Automatic annotation (TrEMBL):
Domain of life of the native organism: Eukaryota
InterPro entries noted in UniProt: MTMR12-like_C, Myotubularin, Myotubularin-like_Pase_dom, Prot-tyrosine_phosphatase-like
Residues covered by region (Disordered): 1-28
Organism: Vombatus ursinus (Common wombat)
GO cellular component: cytoplasm; membrane
Record protein name field: Myotubularin phosphatase domain-containing protein
Residue ranges of the TM segments: none
Length: 702
């Protein structure tokens, strides 16, 4: 449709966008904001549109005064559409210097799942790219893919043309918005990132020094940082650096990785304090033809200095990517405000989302038992090594290590196991326009919420931090979740060099390393949330002394010898099955599924591996439950719906969301106090009450 055409002002007709030069439309003319940080965009007409601090390259397309509905009382303000987001600014709102990139009413264009125009004279119309608006809307409903709902109503007195213009601007902006935001990025010094001066900055793992520091923190003495993929010539989906056994050469690593899917060979993701190592790798590339030296190099990487090895079939018992996507779509449809309430619980069960959460927690619990019950090498093997491997490795660390349950520890795990490990965020979250969408990371956050709910004293972070992380996956202000591979992030930020840096373990960093500018990341919470909001990230029930980090003496890893390992097991469907060798190429076998050795019996018991006396062979002897290990419940009502996240579009359901914990009671108390202030203000206009911050995305109303 051509801008500048108007088909009329009556209801029941199809309209095109009114001319942009019409003076009474209150349209801010598009103006590119070339800024290094943030700049304010002010309208020539100062009567309606509030000052807006734009992101780099952001253009204001249209705006209109309106009323935010959905919560009582109605909140007057202005609806603004830019080329990157749709946002609502309450009346009297003023941007704060400490929180300028995000608010409860900001919707990135890529986050808009459905846009509806509502009129009292007809049925709601779903607005899609290329569609014509058939009437002047009384209300616009913006459904976020993160389960938020922004409902803006327009009053009388000539506001309908403005509503029309904004609605059409949103349609065109969504159509023209690239699925992958080519974000240039703001540069920050390391001194202004993180949660505050008391929290260290999250390591981005983009330098060998970062990886070496993490290795020392884990106490992985038998491992080293490999630079074989520094120029991404081994795998573009892997990070530039990773951990490999100390005795292996980079030349051996390069050859061995070539026999795995997408070049993602076995590498360390976590060293357990008790001595075990958790590895992850892609599937064997069965069409390759390795020689004897390559097979031995693969075995050395998988063995990782241990005499006992367990290969974990990651995808077994877990949902496929298509299953995850279908369940999430059904869950979003069920949580809409207009969803029928009849048999709602049956419909929730029919989505199978909670079943997928249950299966992930059960699998992670079993793997945690394998890691903590005996010193061994546990290898998570998934064909692509970019989805369920990251989910399980993260959950295993959170279940097994108290240090991972801090706010800093969780951020480090996400950066290492998801961002640096090459999880395709853009594709899985629907930002690439392809058909491989599956919110695996959101499934992980739901599993993590279940753990926080079941063990409220074990985690330093709160539900509100998980909500902030959940809502950050589609924001256009950071490239953390807007790329599919570390190669794409490095290419965008200009990190490539024509030479390979020689790294010596223990070498000091550059003395000006802390002054080198870096792109904005999702971990820069201080620029996107206020200090009061960040305080809500912390769990008041957390007891850091509750779990000890000490572990009983463990058998030390057996040094690698030229001979084969002592025992090899495959863990699948809750059962440990002995194997004859690690690699499928030995003895002429070219496929894992072609041999009857890999056909496993189903475990008929409903108990977990831990309930079956750890499921270990008798000659291994008894193994007590180590301190610090969490084994969550995953049967029946133990798995609950994350209502504060999924039912945010239904405010009437949010009241009384207290869990049987102290933090839940504090949350409900905050809600009741907020309602009391609102009612007092409405009944007694002269009473001075504390004004609620309209830019509080972590308010109880969410």
């Amino acid at each position: 449709m051509e801008p500048g055409r108007c088909g009329g002002g009556g209801r029941g007709r199809s309209f095109n966008i009114p001319p942009q030069k019409e003076p009474n439309m209150g349209l801010l003319r598009p103006k590119s904001m070339q800024v290094s940080g943030m700049e304010e965009s002010r309208s020539p007409q100062t009567s309606g549109c509030p000052a807006l601090r734009c992101l780099p390259g952001e253009q204001v397309l249209a705006w209109a005064p309106g009323v935010r509905r959905g919560l009582e009382p109605e909140l007057p303000g202005t609806l603004i559409c830019t080329n990157q987001r749709v946002l609502f600014r309450p009346q009297g709102w003023q941007g704060r210097q400490d929180s300028i990139l995000s608010s409860d009413y900001d919707f990135a264009l890529s986050n808009i799942g459905r846009l509806e125009a509502v009129s009292g004279l007809g049925r709601p119309q779903i607005l899609r790219p290329g569609s014509l608006l058939k009437f002047m809307p009384d209300e616009i409903l913006i459904h976020g893919r993160d389960f938020r709902l922004l409902r803006v109503g327009f009053g009388e007195g000539g506001l309908e043309p403005l509503a029309f213009r904004v609605a059409m601007a949103i349609i065109q902006a969504r159509a023209q918005n690239g699925q992958a935001q080519q974000y240039d990025g703001m540069t920050l010094s390391k001194a202004c990132c993180g949660l505050g001066p008391s929290e260290p900055p999250v390591p981005l793992l983009e330098t060998p020094e970062d990886w070496e520091a993490e290795r020392k923190k884990h106490g992985a003495r038998g491992w080293r940082v490999s630079t074989v993929n520094e120029r991404f010539d081994v795998s573009t989906s892997l990070s530039r650096y990773f951990w490999v056994p100390r005795q292996t050469l980079d030349s051996e690593v390069r050859k061995a990785f070539g026999h795995f899917h997408q070049g993602r060979g076995p590498r360390l993701c976590w060293h357990h304090p008790g001595g075990s190592d958790l590895l992850r790798s892609g599937g064997f590339y069965e069409a390759s033809d390795p020689n004897r030296e390559d097979i031995r190099a693969v075995e050395l990487l998988l063995q990782a200095g241990h005499s006992d090895i367990v290969l974990v079939d990651t995808v077994d018992e877990l949902p496929s990517l298509a299953d995850i996507q279908l369940a999430h779509l059904r869950l979003r449809a069920l949580c809409l405000p207009d969803a029928a309430d009849e048999k709602w619980l049956s419909a929730l069960e029919g989505t199978r989302w909670l079943d997928h959460v249950r299966s992930c927690l059960r699998k992670a619990s079993d793997i945690s038992v394998l890691v903590t019950s005996r010193v061994r090498s546990v290898v998570l093997q998934e064909q692509g090594d970019r989805d369920l491997n990251g989910l399980l490795s993260s959950l295993v660390q959170l279940l097994s290590a108290p240090g991972a349950r801090t706010l800093y520890g969780l951020q480090t795990i996400v950066q290492r196991e998801w961002v640096a490990a090459g999880h395709p965020f853009l594709t899985r979250l629907g930002g690439s326009g392809g058909s491989e969408e599956a919110p695996v990371f959101l499934l992980f956050l739901d599993c993590l919420w279940q753990l926080v709910h079941q063990f409220p004293a074990e985690f330093e972070f709160s539900e509100f931090f998980l909500l902030a992380l959940h809502d950050s996956v589609r924001v256009p202000d950071t490239p953390t979740f807007l790329r599919d591979t570390p190669w794409e992030r490095a290419k965008q930020s200009g990190q490539f060099s024509s030479y390979t840096k020689v790294y010596t373990p223990g070498s000091p960093q550059s003395p000006v390393g802390d002054l080198v500018p870096r792109p904005l990341t999702v971990w820069d919470w201080g620029l996107r949330y206020s200090h009061q909001q960040i305080l809500q990230f912390y769990n008041p029930c957390y007891e850091p002394h509750h779990c000890s980090d000490s572990y009983p003496p463990k058998e030390q890893p057996t040094p690698v010898t030229p001979g084969p390992p002592r025992s090899i097991f495959l863990f699948s469907r809750g059962t440990l099955t002995p194997l004859n060798q690690l690699c499928p190429w030995r003895d002429g076998f070219s496929s894992l599924t072609s041999s009857s050795r890999w056909h496993l019996r189903h475990n008929t018991s409903s108990d977990s591996l831990a309930d079956q006396e750890w499921g270990l062979p008798p000659h291994w002897g008894p193994s007590p439950l180590p301190p610090g290990l969490l084994l969550p419940g995953f049967l029946g009502p133990q798995i609950r719906l994350w209502r504060r996240c999924y039912l945010r579009g239904r405010p009437e359901v949010q009241t009384g969301l207290s869990a049987p914990t102290v933090s839940g009671l504090l949350d409900e108390l905050a809600q009741l106090q907020e309602l009391l202030r609102t009612w007092s203000s409405g009944a007694l206009p002269g009473v001075q009450t504390k004004t609620k911050d309209p830019d509080t995305p972590l308010s109880p109303s969410r």
